[in-house]
Amino acid sequence: MVKNNRWASLRAKKMPVSMFNTMDAAKVEAQRKGLEIIDLSVGSSDLPAPPAAMEALRAATYRSETHGYCLHSGTQPLRQAAAGWFEERYGGNLDPERNVMVLIGSQEGFAHLLLAITDPGDVILAPDPGYPSYFGAIALAGLELAPLPLLEENGFLPDLSTVPVDVARKARVMVLAYPNNPTAAVASAAFFQEVITFCQNHDIFLIHDFPYVDMVYGDYQAPSVLAQPGAMDIAVELYSCSKSYHMGGFRIGWAAGNADAIAALNQVKSAIDFNQYPGIQQAAIAAINQPRAETRRAARVFESRRDVLVMALNQVGWETRLPQASMYVWTRLPVGLDDSFEFTVNLARETGICLAPGRGFGPRGEGFVRFALVREPEALERAVERIQRFWGS
After folding, report:
1. How far lies 13's CA from each of 120, 144, 361, in Å?
2. Distance separating alpha carbons of residues 254 and 106, to the nearest angstrom
3. Is 6 inside any structural domain?
4. Is 244 helix (H, G, I), strand (E, B) or coil?
5. Quick one: 303 and 279 in the same domain?
6. pLDDT attached to residue 24
7. Does residue 313 sit in the same domain as residue 274?
8. What integer pLDDT is reported at residue 393 of this predicted model?
9. Is 352 inside any structural domain?
10. Total structural domains in the chain?
11. Within the chain, which residues score under 50 in pLDDT?
12. What pLDDT, on the 0 to 100 scale, is given for residue 1?
């Protein structure tokens, strides 16, 4: 254990225990029993990357000029493509040189951005429940966490009027993510404008994690923070190819927004990495440039899975709402159950069905579980059947 490791730093010892490792151990136990594993605990898309992206990567591997280190200037084509994507989608004008930075995935970008714009001891407003890597990055940066409760009665949006005045006065950064992981909640442009005003009034920098921009259902369109008035003065938005283009293992994304924050991020990253392999960057460009109809087609696949799963859960008496976006279904534990870790670990061990426990996303996630829509409809139906038998027993 790291906490008893004499060579572990204080920052390593402050890192939260990974719920994914806990669930993985339960999954291994189920495999030893010979159970079929239906893993709905990790939000890793099972759809293939775009053919154009794969062809771009394949061609790049045969060009020796892609085999060396990639300095900042080498990321210009992807930065230009990202700026063009934003202009086409939201009508905003991003300078590829000043407002865009290529990332080795948005998770890496978030951790390095905190190191770039905060100092140890600064206060950060972060969602609870929230994506687990936020808490690890916050510990790494030595920040003081001030939770923003995401409550069901508020549509899993933070109520900024409840932030104590002294906390708002001390806060350096706020983190939000909509469409949300884990709750699948969505936000409006009006909500983002309220957040921007709050941050301006209290001199708080806003980080908006935006990987689910294309995983939206029905007529809902996910607004960008950067498209709102005043955002470019106080915000950075993080993008990823992992969800929109099913390229999670490629580890490629970008940050966009305030020029000073982007410059600070560049300064930190230049001391740590030489950027992602150029062939993967070229694959990302090909993915970004494909017709939007392709991302809408993929979203409909997840939408149909959502419909199947939610209907199956409701049919067995597990009351669950239809989310408008993301690749998750976030729902309360059935009546009579209150420990999400105990339920999901035992479920995995005994049935091979793996879900994410709500408490793994923060204290206010307790009482919930998260289903990831990463299997075909038939597997989702089988999962609910097994859950019903386990739950009933």
Report:
1. 16, 15, 19
2. 7
3. no
4. helix
5. no
6. 84
7. no
8. 65
9. yes
10. 2
11. none
12. 58
**Paired sense of beta strands 253-257 and 235-240, if any:** antiparallel
With contact defined as beta carbons under 8 Å apart, do 127 and 157 qualify? no
Any domain includes 220: yes
Structural domain range at position 345: 13-43+293-392
Give which of 328, 358, 364, 324 is closest to 341, Cα–Cα. Answer: 358
Threshold 0.70, pTM exceeds: yes
Question: Do 102 and 124 share a domain, yes or no?
Answer: yes
Cβ atoms 380, 305 nearer than 8 A? yes
pLDDT score at 22: 82
Closest CA to 204 of 236, 177, 182, 178: 236
Tell me the C-alpha distance between 201 and 209, whole Å. 21
Q: 134: Cβ–Cβ under 8 A, 6 or more apart, which residues?
A: 110, 126, 127, 175
What token pair was written down for 227?
Answer: 């498209």
Q: Is the residue at 2 inside a domain?
A: no
What region does 184 belong to: left with phi over 0, alpha with psi -120 to 50, or beta?
left
CA atoms of 380 and 372, how far apart (whole Å): 10
User: How many Cβ atoms are within 10 Å of 293's Cβ, its own excluded?
Assistant: 8
Q: Are residues 388 and 273 in the same domain?
A: no
How far apart are alpha carbons 320 and 332 in whole angstroms? Answer: 8
Q: Which residue carries 């038939």 as its tokens? A: 378
CATH number, domain with residue 386 = 3.90.1150.10
366: left (phi over 0), alpha (psi -120 to 50) or beta: beta
Give tens-digit pLDDT for 93-116.
Answer: 999 999 999 999 999 999 999 999
